Amino acid sequence: MIKLIKILFILKFGVFLLFFQILNASEKIKIGLLIPMTGSNKEIGQSIIKAVSLAVKDIDDDSIEIYPKDTASRPNQALKSAFELKQMGIKVVIGPVFYESLTYLDEMKDLTFLSLTNKTLDLPKNVISAGINSTSQFNTIKKFLEKNNIEKTIFLTPIQEYEFEIKKGMKDSKIKIFKEYDYNTDPTKLTKQIEEITKYKIRKQNLEDEITRIKNSNEPNKEKKIKRLEKRYTIGNLNFDAVVIADFDESLKSVTTSLLYTDVKPKNKHFITLNQWFDESLLNETDIQPIYYPSINKENFNDYKIKYFNTFNEDPSHLSLLSYDLLGLVYYLSLGSDLSNLNKLFKKQNSFKGKIGIFDIKNNKINHRLNFYKIDEKELIKIF
């Protein structure tokens, strides 16, 4: 069989767009791409196109055809492009990238969309969220807690747009919750909230009372005891073993700083957070180490980054790795099945191993089996 790979570079709106098709005489596997090719997120779209081209090359099947269309990160443009894909006879689409672009896609009932969003609430029935959702992350955290017999875990959730996604993930994972708190991310309010959660003022008063008691006592070596106590900030046990902080970036660091201020330290209580995409800035935050989080497989991610860089001489976006895997997933499901029945395939229990890890498919949902890592003494360490 003669394989023909056609790569087209089209200049549109001043941007070079990479398109590709793999053609042969057999029946085609037509897959649409709904991605931002113009606008402020066009670099993400470019990275996804390149990632999909890598996946096509690795699969090495002449029957795959890819049809990219622009969403411009706007719901109305996403609908227009989806209609164009439908007119071309396409049944399955990778994308859109962003939740906001899904707004009108329930009008395209004949198409199945594998969106890269990790949001799972209020999705159109023909959209399957393929991002690393909160349920996948809490499933992994739950595994760690159970393996280590950690019974009392408190959960800190920011009052933010994604708050309800976090709570849904907790519920769906059936993770054991000792206590749950919502917090305001405003730094002027955050510390006071953490003080209340950790009973800081009571524990601080306990210390002051104990120092006063010893000063007024006839205990031997009381000066040494007082000096030792004066190096502390509080006295009194905390009634939890671990804290899960559902936050990211500087907001995460604000919470951990407040915990340290209230004398809650990661050497005594497990600090756990959500997927940080291997945020290297955390390596230098030694005061909050060890800190734990679920994530994709680091070794696979590094292999992918090297392959991508060697091919395109640039680093990939995180979302491009997901699109690489989704093409493999669609191809896997297409073997022996009609893509027009893809929605039915997603209702059955199924699994697929990709670069990110293992996809678990059931009831029109994708969950990811993630790895679990800790950062300690400036090193990233894989737990499982």
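Second entry:
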Amino acid sequence: MKMKVNLSNLRLKPQRGLTTREFIMLALLVVALEGYFLVNYILAPAYDDYASAVRELQERQQALDDIKRDYARRNEIEAEIKDAEGKLAVIQAQLPPYVSQEEAVFSLKDYSDRSGLSIKSISFVNAGELPLSVVPAGGTEDKAPFTAPVPVLVEQQVTINFMGDYRQVYDFLSNVEINSRKGSLKSITLQKNDDGTLNGVMTLSFPSYWDEYEGRKPFVMTPESESGKASLFDEYTGYSTSGQARSEALKPAPRPDFYITLNSYLNNSAKVFMMNYYNAGSEAIEDRNETVTAQMTLDGADGKYTFSYKLGAYDIVGDTPTEIKDGKIRMEVLVQPRRSDEDRVGLVLDITNNTGVPFEITVKGDDPSNPRFMTGRTVGNVMVIQANG
């Protein structure tokens, strides 16, 4: 089938050309489109890549400069690392990752040996977590509920039954407090016997900084290198075939007649404590964070000696003769180290020795460059010995 079209019926409108204005508008549109695509899809990505490359180059150059600077001071950095490791070791010595019962027992035995306090029994309370609070850099404590992360503080409580005198109890607790391993007294009860001795029960706390990554390390007892000898039959220092000479060599050091303790200003006990070992009720204390003065007088002759001293509001007179051992009257001064520049506890002791017997003062633990203990005006034979122990 053929279709016939009558071309005479079609009327075509003649085409006409673009005007100059339309041509310019069209050209501007084309240029704008090309510019848009050129900027957004070619130039902008290229510039971003360039800027990123410049930043990366600067960062790497900064890292290279840091490496060069650190390398130049590598010896100083190694020293800083060793110093940090030393400080960490000190902190871990005070607050270990774990306190074993064996270690607590050996610590208590050491305190007992030093003080002379007799420990009758030891019992342990199950260790428990101590409450923690968050203290941010600003120093304000966060009062919101806080769940302690790992690691946490863990407290091991130890209860001991003991027997001794007041001086021994005081020395025992002083050893607990000044020891590098942190410990504290939770509670204590005392009962005085007819003979003047004390029976009591105390509970001590040994905290640790429990870290699950450290784990429970077994207690290892390190023997002292200077104790013991290779053979039981070797002669020891001071050995003699004479029974009397052996007795003299093995005789314990004489106990001091007088004690003074000078504690840190942070110590809850008296800052200055003074007493005569052989006279009950001879305690004198001063609790100010400053250097105070005291006066002491020794009188007598021919084996009968008396004493008096004044410290703060205390004026102590001893009518009971002081024991003379090895031809000397002795005093021991136990000093806690200063914790900061704010620690100003100290004592200046004026001494009048009217006896013909030397008065020997042994000072333990004091800092020669900034001492807590000093002698003031002295009369008679007075000797001061600085000891490390």
